[in-house]
Design goal:
This protein is mainly α. The chain folds into two domains: 315 residues, no CATH class; 42 residues, no CATH class. Helix content is 64%, strand content 4%. It contains 18 helices and four strands. A two-stranded antiparallel sheet has the order 1-2. The chain has a two-stranded antiparallel ribbon with strand order 3-4. The longest helix has 26 residues. The N and C termini lie far apart (48 Å).
Length: 389
């Protein structure tokens, strides 16, 4: 249920003001908690690589000056120009790597939060589902995290079918690509401007088929998009445990998308935004390509965020309204439950303790979640303060 947005002065001391305050407080508290969990992490699977690159960029700038040193970094390092430029500026300002990482992560989190707050009736619920998945991946892969956040923020421009909106989305995706090349594929979301969902789905499946053929017959053409120098035979097919991991990831997206579609068609009081709905018909591109190359999982995990935003979106027929209803629909509750189950089942790899071929337990400290939470400045400080370290 929604009510028109009325100035507070006309409402006196109505419950709306209190509820709006509680919603805002819950939102910023969630941002604070997730920000501390992510930005204060100091050890993860990729941190050593990023610290080494950051240190080398600092060396280039210190020896040759900012412009020349940054130019040399563009030639010597394989990362994208947007990331290298921000790292160069940070080095020039003598910011340590942890401060640079924290700034990038917090900026990314705020962009995702802004998208949820603008597009969704329950932004806090969206952020907590994001916290379950793919938040802990995003702490590790900071380049893609920044690109993903820009794309998630940019989908607001897909709600209006116009050349101006398409141009804004196009520019923001190019900016995201400057941090991770894989983000260029999100230009496929411009398919949402096609009016008929069946045509959107047909186009996405055709692109999936063409991409699969390209990966199979000319894999090295795809390598730059995936952020690799080449693709070996070992990368194609994702055997063994990865099949289970990506299968669960695909199931999480498909469950979220299906529940979102059901919710939008049967449970919303207003009319759903058609463009946000059609995003879910584009994402099968990445679902299909995932099983040809494991690197496409980045794009699919962003699809989980899209599905969540679609499930909680503000109906188009109620512009300028504020949500005053705190309860969730049954479909949205099932979406939350599916996210929890998927996160527990997935646990971000490396979790199973296997002895002589038998699974005997879960090594929480070896999971992505455990690694990030245990290697955190705030967590370590609290453990020391209470004598638990």
């Amino acid at each position: 249920m929604t009510i028109p947005h009325t100035p507070a002065s006309h409402l006196g001391a109505s419950p709306l003001t209190t509820r709006s305050f509680r919603l805002a407080a819950g939102y910023w508290l969630t941002i604070l908690v997730l920000g501390c969990c992510g930005s204060l992490n100091y050890v993860n699977n990729d941190s050593a690589i990023y610290q080494a690159v950051y240190g080398r960029i600092g060396g280039y700038i210190e020896s040759d000056g900012f412009i020349q040193g940054l130019g040399y970094a563009f030639q010597a390092e394989r990362f994208e120009w947007g990331y290298l430029t921000t790292a160069g500026i940070s080095n020039f300002l003598h910011v340590p790597y942890q401060g640079f990482f924290a700034a990038l992560f917090l900026a990314s989190l705020l962009l995702v939060g802004a998208a949820a707050r603008t597009l969704c009736t329950h932004p806090v619920a969206v952020l907590w589902i994001y916290a379950l998945y793919p938040f802990f991946y995003d702490v590790i892969q900071i380049r893609y995290t920044v690109g993903q956040a820009i794309v998630v923020y940019a989908i607001r421009h897909l709600r209006t079918r116009s050349w101006k909106s398409a141009a804004k989305f196009f520019v923001l995706v190019l900016l995201a690509t400057s941090f991770h090349t894989a983000c260029i594929l999100f230009l496929l979301l411009l398919l949402v401007f096609i009016q008929r969902p069946a045509v959107v789905l047909g186009c996405s499946l055709a692109i999936s088929f063409a991409g699969a053929l390209t990966i199979y017959f000319a894999p090295n053409l795809v390598a730059p998009i995936l952020g690799q120098t080449d693709i070996t035979d070992a990368d194609v097919g994702a055997p063994g445990a990865r099949v289970l991991m990506f299968g669960v990831m695909t199931a999480a997206y498909l469950i979220g998308a299906a529940l979102s579609l059901r919710n939008l068609y049967f449970e919303t009081d207003g009319k759903p935004n058609a463009a946000l709905l059609r995003i879910l018909f584009v994402m099968p591109v990445f679902v299909a390509l995932l099983f040809f190359d494991a690197q496409f999982y980045r794009l699919l995990r962003t699809g989980v965020i899209f599905a969540c935003i679609a499930a909680f979106q503000i109906p188009s027929s109620t512009p300028g309204t504020v949500p005053v209803k705190f309860d969730l629909s049954r479909t949205q509750l099932w979406l939350v439950l599916a996210s929890i189950i998927s996160a527990i089942a997935l646990m971000y790899r490396q979790e199973l303790v296997i002895i002589q071929g038998t699974i005997v337990g879960v090594d929480f400290g070896a999971t992505y979640i455990g690694m990030i939470l245990t290697h955190n400045f705030l967590v370590q400080y609290l453990l020391s303060a209470f004598g638990l370290a």
